[in-house]
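Chain A, query sequence.
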Amino acid sequence: MAKAIGQHAYDARDYPRLNSNIHLLSRKHGQLKAVINAFVEQTIEWLPEIKSRDGLEKWLELVETLRSVTEGKVNLYHFLEWIIYYKICLQIFLETPRARVTLLLSHHHESVSKGATMPQKVKESLQTASDLLNDLQVETYSSMERREKTEFILEQMRFLIAVARIKDAEEGKGKDGKDTLGGGEAEWVKARAGGRKVNEQFLTEKENEVRMCTDLPNF
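Chain A, predicted structure.
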């Protein structure tokens, strides 16, 4: 029923109603977690078509709606886990969908940076992309497959390195062009810490050797 409600709004291209229905259904008292997960996953599948067919504004609104309804579902009952066992499930059932939607939003901000002409705008957009993705502690997500988890960590590292290099370049300009890591030092530290989270077996697989060299050059 919940998926049908969303489908009708989507077919009618009534995005205000779709966003509203997602909020209402996710907050309904006693709503089963499987139901919430089902219509969230359904909506995520629509995102590429909405972006190409109805424009960036509608896409961003829906992305923010999905991030809003998945926020807090991960840790909402963490402090009660030793009292009410069944509520522990609410910690994890939306963490992976939220991560996937956040990755899409990060890539959007990265595309904005590539189209920007002002250096400050490039930096701000990449910083936003990095902050969004690195706010996710995917290494703790038991609901995410190991391969997908590793790919997320690699993306987190890639954004950190991109921001670090911009900050290093900015500081270098103020020191007669001398090389320095001072500007992006915090990002370099986080990127190296991220490297220790990468699954070693993933790196030994031959198909991933080229990806590592492409995603993390000179790291």
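The first helix runs from residue 2 to 11. The chain has a mean pLDDT of 81.
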